[in-house]
Amino acid sequence: MTVIEATSTRTDICVPPPKAHPRPEGQDQYTISEVAAFTGLTAHTLRWYERIGLMSHVDRSHTGQRRFTNRDLDWLVFVGKLRLTGMPVAHMVRYAELLRAGEHTFEERQELLEATRRDVRTRIAELQDTLAVLDYKIDFYASARRAPERSST
Which pTM does this prediction carry? Predict the structure, then answer.
């Protein structure tokens, strides 16, 4: 599956790779173990992603071994970002299906990502509130520990 979404007027790359691809375009055939090492995912997870439709068909060598490409690596980076948002796997699979279906699904894909963004913003606000409570408590304990020192001098 590709993370490069092309229209007649532009190409959108969902997420740039976090680092340069290990191999240049055209020489980018990776085994499942190489992809596991690059992404931090297990071979089991990569096979599961393919089985549930989160990844499109991965090419195979003449011996039947999976051969991933740079585009597959880019897609896995994007899926990793979606995982960090807390997006349910079913929604990620739906997004992948919509992507494969073509341009007429742009609106539905956008809606799915906007809903995820709303959820992320809500979680960020909750975490900021939590951080404020932690900062308050840490400051309280730091002040309480300094107070006896001042009274003894």
Answer: 0.76
